[in-house]
Amino acid sequence: MKFLLLSAFLAAGYACKLDGVTRANEETWVARKMFTMRCVINKDSSWKTEVVGCASPTGAEVPIGGQVIEEGIVYSCNRGEDGRINYRKAMHPTTFCEGHQLGDTWIHNKNFNRSCSERGLFVVNCLTDSGAFIPLNGQVTEGPVLFKCTEESNGTVLLHRGRALEKVNLQKLALSKLKENIPLEPQMPFVEPTTVALPTLLPEVTTAAVVELASTEAATQVPVETTTAIEVTESTTALETSSFVEEATTVSVESTTETEVQPGEVPTLAAPAEPLPPIAIDPVQPPTVGVSLNKPEGPKPPGIRPPAVMARPEPPVEEDNTIQQVVPASDVISEAVFPQETVEPVTSQPIHIVHPPAIRPPPGFSHSGMSCLDEGVVRQPEDTWVVEGKFRKTCTEQGAVRVLECLIDDQTPMPVNTDRMVGQRLHRCWRQGDQVFYEARDLPKRRRHF
What is the annotated signal peptide range for this record (predicted)? Predict the structure, then answer.
């Protein structure tokens, strides 16, 4: 009886201590609003934390191997082959694909070819008014109209319509421009864009590892999350009334007036604003008209002062009643891999440290309550901390972990992409792609020759 009471007393004295919080045996809690954790105390007094499930943003339990649908978003929780728990977030096709199923392709608003996939709704290509194929970032001329289909970096697809350049008689164009005192410049087609923003949703995968410790003083960390980039991009306009607004297409064609000149007739030129100065003509060399040919022999004709250019009256401003509507983009969720960081001790040998790539969510992301999970510790936005004494990290408002600078020691920070000499030791800190590198090496001493 005394032995049982003593065992119960000792068991009650042990608990899971994590991030300053003491958890009792079999106690469960939700970490980072995604994973359901449980404290387990072994018979040998050691303890561990394990993932027993997932949780939706509203707190609904998502068991391992199951899924929950909330507001058109499918939240699933599965165990991978390596034992990690995968938390996945994806769009429900019937909700975000206008009732279409996965793999369906259809024409939307006559000029856009859409498709439905697990990553969401996206545009495959554009179409002309007659149904001709226009590849993304390509253009097609159909009659007098030039169609151009472009895709922006944020997933927005733009369909431009404009007047195609025609072959115009240069002489007639020059005479027409000369009458109006307009410089002869190449005329560009007038383009009126039609904008459509389409959602591009990538499934979110968050993994957690379960580690068992044999020591009572050691602490099992919160699951190490490999991907944390979640972005929600929204664009709204005054005309927006629903989640998906029909795209407005406009066509604007410039009209060009050309004056026919009959043989033998001389076009009537507009009188200049001020009298022209007298033109000196060389009796030997006749004056040149149009393009001047530079001949090496003979005297060059004197310079002719050009007449004053009459200001072209501004055309009346017509009120543009064209309605352009922008479709807001849906959730954009990126997936990445966050490898483990390896750090070697500082010795006289060169040190080469590679920091894992920063988790960067797509631009424009904003989500309240977002936090970062780095090395088992939950960080809040704008928090800074030091890892292995060599990297100073921060947590962004988007839930991304980013390296701010390297550290030579506790008192000597070193910005990224800089080199610094401390004694005979060269320290280097640079960023290459999404990785941060730190290197320290001893430079060879110069020998003096006598």
Answer: 1-15
| Burial of 8: CB neighbours in 10 Å, binned 0-12, 13-18, 19+ | exposed
Please choose, from the candidates 237, 259, 194, 211, the residue with its C-alpha nearest in 3D space to the C-alpha of residue 37: 211
Nearest to 156 by CA among 121, 125, 198: 198
Q: Are residues 356 and 434 in the same domain?
A: yes
91 and 211 inside one domain: yes
Write out the H or E segment, with its range, that includes residue 184: none
**Residue whose structure tokens are 């004197």:** 302
Cβ atoms of 186 and 167 closer than 8 Å: no
Cα 356 from Cα 340, distance rounded (Å): 7
Q: How many residues does the chain have?
A: 450
Cα 68 → chain centroid: 29
* 439 in Cβ contact with 353 (< 8 Å): yes
Nearest alpha-carbon partner for 223 in 231, 211, 233: 211
pTM of the model: 0.32
CA dist 1 and 132 (Å) reads: 88
Burial zone of 193 (CB within 10 Å; 0-12 exposed, 13-18 middle, 19+ buried) = middle
- Quick one: 84 and 228 in the same domain? yes
**Same domain as 183, residue 35:** no
Distance of CA 77 to the CA centre of its chain: 27
Q: How far apart are CA 271 and CA 269, in angstroms?
A: 6
- Domain shared by 206 and 82, yes or no: yes
Q: What is the mean pLDDT of each run of 10 residues along the chain (450 residues)?
A: 45 73 90 89 88 90 91 88 86 75 86 83 90 92 90 88 65 65 52 46 45 37 35 31 33 37 45 48 44 46 46 50 39 34 38 45 47 78 85 82 87 88 87 84 69
Is there a domain that residue 255 lies in? no
> Which phi and psi (to 5°) does residue 239 adopt?
-95, -5
What three-state secondary structure class fits 175? helix
d(CA 207, CA 336): 11
CA-to-CA distance for 289 and 277, rounded, in angstroms?
17
